[in-house]
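Possible regression after last week's pipeline update?

I re-ran a chain I had predicted before the update to compare outputs. Posting the input and the new output here so someone can diff against the archived version. Not blocking, just want to make sure nothing changed silently.
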Amino acid sequence: MNNTDNRFWPYTPHASLKLAALLFVVLFLFTSILRATLNWPSAQSETVVFIGLLLVGFSPVLLAVLDMVIERGAVVEYAGVRLDFSRNRTQGVVEVTVPPNIGVPGVAVTDSGTSAIIGALTDATRSDVIVIDLEEGQAWWETRLLVLLEGATRLGRPGEVVFVATVDRTKRRYQGWGRPAELLLALERTNPIYETTVQTARAASAQWDQIEPHPGAVAGYPPQPLPAGPLAVKYAWMATDARNLRNPLLTEQILQSELGMSVEQPPPGSPIVDMLRCRQLFGAVLYNAQIDLDWPAQQQLHALLSEEAPFLAITRNGVYTELVSKPTLQNEVLKSLVGTRGDERHAD
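New output (post-update):
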């Protein structure tokens, strides 16, 4: 698509000035003829008509200036009406980029080593949006992505997962976003071991839900009686935290330990998630909706109005900036058009 097709005025500044001058001369001559033949405009309305000629004649220049203002993200304010094209569109959204392989890159994690990933998992599940940076294609294993998506699905947070990657030496190029539950299901279907291990870990963790906590006991001492299931008993030391309260990420710790033994440790280990593998795994459930800040204003508006996705990525020359809900963007457009005049009236 030619970018000039999406501007209010697609011509060059030089052509705009020429056309504005020509248009003004034509309109002035036409008005002079009307004055001579029909005695219009009258002397009383001559000033108003002249101002109108100026506005119409120089409209190409005004439209060209408006294009430049919008594309550069400027703020225009006149007579109490404010058009702000530079406002930050996100408000109160917590976003975090998860460390590669949940903080333990390139090393199989089993049993006691799973505690190393708890911090990254905790930060991720406290966020509204998480960013998975595939980098150049060696940063993430399928097993670690499975653990992260299982935790997000079970806890209901984060709500969205964004994928970025390094493309042609440019970091964090936007690849798409998806819902954790849909991404998890797509990943489970690629390997029977994944689905079985997820269900086993959930079942073992659920048994500990039936055991009353003992916060007054010695730290790290498992409560009694122990669950009957052998897998739940095996991971009794994981069941509680330092206060002997329920470990909120027990399911994910068990899942990681089991995947570490069944998939990560034996050669060839866990498959790598690069850009191609990401499309193979999640292509059917990934949203590619975006608005690039380097696009012309009308192209941005067209993307906002035509996309059906509930969230759109904000990018700059393809590099990911943030994920914003479509209603939020629509509200910002309305606020930019309406400005602050309504607030001022209420204040009065």
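Follow-up from reviewer: compared with the archived run. Strands lie at 75-78, 81-84, 95-97, 129-133, 160-167, 170-178, 290-292, 311-316, 319-325. Marking as no regression found.
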